[in-house]
Design goal:
Distance between the termini: 25 Å
Strand content: 5-15%
Number of domains: 2
Order of helices and strands: EHEHEEHHHHHHHE
Number of helices: 9
């Protein structure tokens, strides 16, 4: 008899990692059932390092397609190309010039700035990081004014940007209000309170091959 879970995709993840959050949200909105393997990033299991020699999460393994995907952006594409909510824009919108620029700006300027704000820097470096983060979030502020998504409807772009921007909000709960970014606050709050986020942002035991697999089922 065929094992009903043997062909399910396998996601290696870590709860708080923003890139892994992207992947889990995309799988949730795509309603893709999968096996979840929570990785202890300070004590990585040797079997995980065989699958992902660079030792980062998320990693998605699709046994049916014999495919290993080790970049969060590609996992989001993989999932939402298979299925997404009817009112969402197609995944391809993330490749449009203006949207691709927004995402690249976030990764190249905002994310490093948040790292300096969170983990410390010289006074001058921190001041520059705050200004860099504020400038980028002013762009987000104008995009989400009066709505809960970055484009005319929900899209993969929200899933790609939300977890990284949320990191700054949870690091300092007053940062956004201090910089008068109320629309960004509302946007983050909307996605944090979504059914999918509340479903995927839960504690999971660290993966142990000797234990029964954790199967995530999305209705």
């Amino acid at each position: 008899m065929t094992n009903p879970i043997e062909n399910l995709p396998i996601l290696y993840s870590f709860k708080r990692c923003p890139y892994a959050i992207r992947a889990r949200m995309a799988l949730g909105y795509a309603k893709i059932n999968h096996i979840h393997r929570e990785i202890d990033l300070k004590n990585k299991h040797p079997d995980f390092l065989i699958t992902s020699p660079k030792g980062t999460v998320p990693v998605l393994v699709d046994p049916e397609q014999q495919q290993v995907i080790d970049e969060s952006v590609d996992i989001v594409r993989y999932a939402l190309t298979k299925h997404q909510p009817k009112d969402w824009l197609p995944v391809s919108v993330v490749d449009q010039i203006q949207n691709a620029k927004l995402f690249n700006d976030m990764m190249q300027t905002f994310v490093p700035a948040v790292r300096k704000i969170k983990y410390g820097a010289t006074q001058d470096e921190e001041h520059e990081a705050v200004e860099t983060a504020r400038r980028f979030l002013n762009t987000i502020e104008s995009r989400v004014a009066g709505k809960q998504h970055l484009l005319d409807a929900p899209s993969a772009l929200d899933i790609l940007c939300f977890p990284n921007i949320r990191q700054l909000a949870i690091h300092d709960g007053s940062w956004l209000s201090h910089h008068d970014l109320k629309h960004v606050e509302n946007w983050i709050d909307f996605w944090c309170k979504s059914n999918v986020f509340e479903t995927i942002f839960v504690n999971q035991p660290t993966w142990n091959p000797e234990l029964d697999p954790i199967v995530i089922k999305h209705k």
